[in-house]
Amino acid sequence: MPHLSLYHNPKSRSASARVLLEALGVPYDVQTIDFANGQNRTPEFLAINPLGKLPTLVHDDAVITEQVAITIYLADRFPSAGLAPAIDAPLRGPYLRWLAFYAACFEPALMDHAFQRAPLDPATSPYRDYDTVIETLVAQLSRGDYLLGDTLTAADLLWGTGLRWTTEFGIVPRLPVILAYIERVSAHPAVIRAGELDAALAEAMAPPAAD
């Protein structure tokens, strides 16, 4: 089987990639990136990802960056896990829609909200505004247990992980429908297993306590 390496920090966006890898049940190794030591800015890492960002996945000679690209790539590359609708399935389009919505609308809108930026003119903004993005998400989550209804997909593992930390930081409102969704996704064995692995990794990375 081709070799998978995840460049990872447990307190970064790469947490969602680790969750997905655990859900797929494929062997992979973790290349830990310590931000405190500037490992994301070394020439070696910048040669792999010039932005110095996580997650970064290396699959043999292929380098895949960006959360959504990694999600699409892995779920399609290992289809036996059943985490992505087939290309010719009716739900393939909605599945891609919500993955694209995460990167193209949700995250930019969060940054606007977090830094208290004034909304752009709706005629020029590719995601309209923060309130509309949240309303659109809430409307979709109100239609079923998961983004595509009753079946959890790789898109839910991405969204569930992202919503968990954004609600914890108060960037996304702690609405009942959002919290219930987070709880459902967080109950997945892969989410629990990845959380345990990352807790142990975070502890190992922590600087020693001062005497």
Automatic annotation (TrEMBL):
Instruction: Return the Gene3D superfamilies for the record.
Output: 1.20.1050.10, Glutaredoxin
Recorded superkingdom: Bacteria
Q: Which Pfam families match?
A: GST_C, GST_N
PROSITE patterns on file: GST_NTER
The UniProt record lists the keyword Ion transport? no
One GO MF term on file is:
transferase activity
Residue ranges of domain GST N-terminal in the record: 1-82
List the SUPFAM superfamilies. GST C-terminal domain-like, Thioredoxin-like
Keyword terms: Transferase
The family note in this entry says:
Belongs to the GST superfamily.
Q: What is this protein called?
A: Glutathione S-transferase family protein
Q: What's the source species for this entry?
A: Thermomonas carbonis
